Amino acid sequence: MIEGFFDGYKNQSLREKNRALEEKDEAIERWAAREEELMRKVRELEAALQARDAEIKIRKIHYLGLEAERDAILSELDDCSGGPGKNPLRQPAYQDTDFVIENGPRKGQKPQLRDHYYFSKVADLIFSRAPELGSWKKLIREWRIHD
């Protein structure tokens, strides 16, 4: 009779342990599915970051191309105007200010008329499309746009 009691106890204990193992297996399966879902999201985010990096590189290359185009046009205007000193786009833009370009190859120089066109457009775009960026002066000074 005692053996039957112990057999029943062992069987009940075994069933409880099996149930606990099944619950743990289910939990492991849920965590594995969650991990799979998170890894899929990570892959999606990595792909989005790679696409964003490519877009940034393309924009930088485009910007460098536009700089080269600008330099060529300014050189042509210099030639047509009788030299850089007579080119209207190279004349000082602001007579009544101490504002100078703070960095880059033209550090310390007063902004020219061509800079005024640039600053005006940047200010309009920041105001209309990205007010969170602050002022155009912040763009020039803190983000070192002339470097």
Blueprint (SSEs and pairs):
Blueprint: H1 2-81, H2 113-129, H3 136-141
Please tell me about this protein's structure.
- With 147 residues, the protein is mostly helical.
- It has a domain at 91-147.
- The protein has helices spanning 2-81, 113-129, 136-141.
- It starts with a helix and ends in a 6-residue tail after the last helix.
- The model has no long low-confidence stretch (mean pLDDT 87).
Question: Brief overview, please?
Answer:
This protein is an all-alpha fold. The protein has a domain at 91-147. It has three helices and no strands.
Helix/strand class: mainly alpha
* Main sheet overview: none
Give the low-confidence spans.
none
Q: How confident overall, as mean pLDDT?
A: 87
Measured as a percent range, the helix fraction is over 70%
Instruction: Write down how many β-strands occur, each being a DSSP E stretch of 2 or more residues.
Output: 0
**H/E element sequence:** HHH
Number of helices: 3
Quick one: overall form?
A: rod-shaped
C-alpha end-to-end distance: 93 Å
Quote the beta fraction: under 5%
Rg is 34 Å
